Amino acid sequence: MNTGVFEVLGPIMIGPSSSHTAGACRLGLMARQILQGEPVKATIYLHESFQKTRKGHGTEVAILGGILGITPDDERLRKSKEISISKGVEYQFLEKELKGQHPNSCQISLTSKNGKHLSVTGSSIGGGQISISQIDDFSVNLSGQYNAILTKHKDRPGIINRVTKMISSKGINIAYMQISRTKKGDSASLIAETDEPITDNIQKELESHDDIYQVKVIRPL
């Protein structure tokens, strides 16, 4: 088994805990990236262990810092609440049981300047690593370690083929892919983690398809 430096040494970070601080910050960073807009309001629901460590291990300031775009190794992380106030970003932390989730989990609900809403549920699974399990109404499995593309589209034949064919035609290898839908013939989602970055041209071409409602390109954290 190959073991990377990250797994041995852990993340470079500000704070006492790789799970409750660094991982928490990365969850906020991932939610911000998926939103793809400047957040103006954040409601963070803390589950089990995250609720217990919200103050002592800096879980609150870490998640909020990530939402603001502050990385785990940035000294500003400690002052994320003050920075949020100065930027006019409203925030609140609430307790919530997230059934079936890892103890170090949270649900992040964001609103952007242009009025877009997003809900992301994820967990800090150790050593600063994370797992995103839900985006809005769709179940996903997103690690934040790879380039990724997320589409929301109509559930109809040919859409998945169009997306994967477009990606492969540009010499991009899909490392992992997951498909989800709300119900047959309604809305569906595809998330693919790739070995190479998704280009702007791929995103624009997919966005031009009438049955593809949304395309988001996600970069590794």
Question: Please, could you describe this protein's structure?
Answer:
Its cofactor is [4Fe-4S] cluster. InterPro entries: ACT-like_dom_sf (IPR045865), ACT_dom (IPR002912), ASB_dom_sf (IPR029009), Fe-S_L-Ser (IPR051318), Fe-S_L-Ser_bsu (IPR004643), Ser_deHydtase_bsu (IPR005131). Belongs to the iron-sulfur dependent L-serine dehydratase family. Pathway: Carbohydrate biosynthesis; gluconeogenesis. It catalyses: L-serine = pyruvate + NH4(+). 29% of the residues lie in helices and 35% in strands. A hairpin with a 2-residue loop joins strand 4 and strand 5. With 221 residues, the protein is of the alpha+beta class. It contains seven helices and ten strands. The chain has a six-stranded mixed sheet. It has helices at 5-9, 18-35, 48-52, 59-67, 80-87, 159-169, 200-207; strands at 39-47, 90-95, 104-112, 117-126, 129-135, 138-142, 147-154, 174-181, 187-194, 212-218. Helix 2 (18-35) runs parallel beside helix 4 (59-67). The protein has two domains: 12-136, D-3-phosphoglycerate dehydrogenase, domain 3 (60s Ribosomal Protein L30, Chain: A, 2-Layer Sandwich), CATH 3.30.1330; 147-218, 2-Layer Sandwich (Alpha-Beta Plaits).
